[in-house]
Amino acid sequence: MGDTSGLQILSTLGEDGRLTVELAERILHEPAGHEVLVRVEAAPINPSDLGLLFGPADVENAEYGDGRLVAVMPDAARRAMQARVGQPMPVGNEGAGTVVAAGDAPEAQALLGKKVTCVPGAMFAQYAMADARACLPLPDGATAEQGAAAFVNPLTALGFVETMRRDGHSAIVHTAAASNLGQMLLRICQEDGVPLVNIVRNSAQVELLKGLGAEYVLDSTSPDYSVELNSALKATGATLAFDPIGGGKQLSQILAAMEQVASEGAPYNRYGSDTFKQAYIYGSLDLGPTVINRSFGFNWQLGGWLLFPFMTRVGPEVMAALRQRVMDNLTTTFASHYSTRISLKDALTKDAVLTYNARRTGEKYLLIPN
Questions:
Q1: Which stretches of 103-230 are assigned E, i.e. beta strand?
Q2: Cα(221)–Cα(210) distance, rounded to whole angstroms?
Q3: Mean pLDDT, rounded, of the chain
């Protein structure tokens, strides 16, 4: 087939602190070995992509042009990102498309002409190179749009439940729970019989999740939130929380409520209850400080959770089973919903950037590169 050229979104941080995000022509060599060349047909814009795409750059006041924007990066962030200065970075963790060329390895040749989902980290492009061993053929009849988000959110939600079991917990608290990922986690917990406490930010999101059959849905802005949180924790026994927000006091409040429930009726202990409480931060919807008021004893942990280190820890056999579950339930349990479908060029207009970079629930964008 020879070399292939196509457009790709690249994000480059300059030494002067100016971030340039632009459409650029890219030449991809003919695939060799286990490589496959994928004609990208759909790629979701996930929160995990936005950190590399824009980070904390000032996109509100950026200069916008024809398939290009230039924004100022705060000084502290530029210093923290020194290792990427001057490097045009491809973006787009996951997506789906058709394999149009393949290396000579049997695993690659077997995918030629097939529609696949993959996570090569460069899917905001018309063409992407991927390792055939990290690609999954989509089920017969499945579209690229249905398979575009088959990795990050589904495997993250499954990873939460797997982590719960491995850490010895029996129920989960999830914040910002009305998201695409949150709805997937709800369906998984319903299927697996796992008690789930869903925390959202307004009454409309409460109604959304209640309509999906959620038993415990709490509005964190409600005046009765603290009482309802304690009641839900008591009913479920949840001692594990997952939070994509990061900043603010919410995790501290959840840990304190867990401690209060665990301490009810127990003898006084100046070190707190014997019940272990764990909270994981897996996102940065709020870039402010994580505020912890240590009112929950000493038997607790707060840490970060990322999908790819989790995949390494659990090993290939567990991951194969989780991936198969996603493929078997691609259009039901693991279905994603999009508010807007957009081209590569239109994705770099001011209106689009300000909308999807705000990361609001119900406003998920899907790139259609070709």
A1: 115-118, 127-131, 136-137, 172-175, 196-200, 216-219
A2: 17
A3: 96
Residue 20 is encoded by which pair of tokens? 């340039």
- Backbone φ and ψ for 136, nearest 5 degrees, come out as -120, 125
**Band of pLDDT at residue 17, cut at 50, 70 and 90:** very high
Helix, strand or coil, per DSSP, at residue 342: strand
Eight-class DSSP state of 69:
E
Spatial neighbors of 245 by CB under 8 A, at least 6 apart, are 175, 176, 281, 283, 284, 285, 286
Torsion over CA: 182, 186, 187, 188 (sign): positive
Q: For residues 244, 249, 252 and 257, what is the CA-based torsion angle, rounded to 10 degrees?
A: -100
- pLDDT-derived band at 2 (thresholds 50, 70, 90) equals confident
- In whole angstroms, what is the distance from residue 245 CA to residue 4 CA? 40
Beta bridge partner(s), residue 131: 35
Distance between alpha carbon 103 and the CA centroid of its chain, in Å? Answer: 30
One-letter amino acid at 279 equals A
Q: Could you tell me the pTM of the whole model?
A: 0.91
Torsion of the alpha carbons at 41, 45, 46 and 49, rounded to the nearest 10: 100
Asked if residue 38 lies in contact with residue 73, where contact means CB atoms within 8 angstroms, the answer is: no
DSSP class of 138 = P
Total residues found in the chain within this entry: 370
Quickly tell me which residue has 């279905």 as its tokens: 335
pLDDT digits (tens, 9 = 90+) for 137-180: 999 999 999 999 999 999 999 999 999 999 999 999 999 999 99
